[in-house]
Specification:
Helix content is 39%, strand content 15%. Helix 2 runs antiparallel to helix 9 and helix 10 runs parallel beside helix 12. The termini are far apart. It has 393 residues and is of the alpha/beta class. The structure holds pyridoxal-5'-phosphate. The site of pyridoxal-5'-phosphate (PLP) has 13 residues, from helix 4.
Amino acid sequence: MLKINENYRNLKESYLFSEIAKRVKEYQDANPDKKVIRMGIGDVSLPLCPAVVDEMQQAAVGMGKAETFHGYGPEQGYAFLREAIQGYYKEFGVSLEADEIFVSDGAKSDVGNILDLFSTDNTVLIPDPVYPVYVDTNIMDGRKITFLPANRENHFLPVPGPDTQGDIIYLCSPNNPTGAVYSREQLGAWVDFAKANGSLILFDAAYESFISDGSPRSIYEIDGAKECAVEFCSFSKTAGFTGTRCGYTIVPHTLVFDGTPLNRLWLRRQTTKFNGVAYVVQRAAMGVFTPEGRRQTRENIEYYKRNAQLMAETMEKLGIWYTGGKNSPYVWFQCPGGADSWAFFDELLHKAQIVGTPGEGFGENGKGYFRFSAFSSHEDTQEAMKRFYELYR
Ligand code: PLP
């Protein structure tokens, strides 16, 4: 008789977004005249930029003509896109071989899929609070997880200490949910730790394009990282590809564990289980790297960054402790008056008609904290911050 993967029984139900939706619906049903502003969304709101749409349209038309039709493509991604990504990394001083770049259908899939390469005996170190995918994908495989506390004391940027242990280490910078960004020194400490202990860092750079203060945008800006880290990136937040689906994963040739180059292993895994990203989508991603695409996506990021700045300024004016907001689309703050994050959620909804995300949905250390995202419109962000200021001044 068929037996299921028992590890799935150990997954906790995720009530976060369904509970938020339920509470908002109840409030809105009882108060149909009130305008609720959503400051909790992790999805983008601006459309794809014209340079991306142009590429996509041309590619789609080409697919209908025998001369320019494309069938199965290379599993690692088309050369035109990998070369464009190579050029992009050069801008922050990172030189990559084209075959170290694997085009993906987004960071989420690869963050989960990479675990195929590693024994379930490995231990895993995950900062708390965290993007929940890191936790659940390891529970599915039955790996032992240790949580690393991120908190006000370490500014939500934990670094390795004398007791730190873990074969697989997850780092996300700029961080979801906290918006905190690791400095060069802090990432250097992680790279040194990983190299000294034979650990692998899984570095999630999904929000790198929000960095503008010289902080590292890629872990490979740190010496030695190519011997201990895989990097995941995405066009989702950089260029509004949340629904279009494209990203890339970097597996350097110098990453060798247990006598085996991970690049070869990942290529074997991908050529067996993945048939590549749609040609039309890769052409759309190519549009991001054209001069117009760079300018237009930068404008969109600046738009979100202005929202984030406004939120950060509001926290400053109110004297509320927060992280993020500067090189990130998220502001993570301590609930005023020491409130519990769900009680604060209700207060904000009922008194100011603002919806955010309670921090405890991201882990134990999120208790008493709250996340706002910058992906709403300017108008809504301004209105929400006005209401927020009035309520807590
Ligand atoms: N990594 C982090 C930290 C995220 O917050 C998200 C999406 O919200 C992802 C990865 C997923 O990105 P993608 O849309 O490329 O799958």
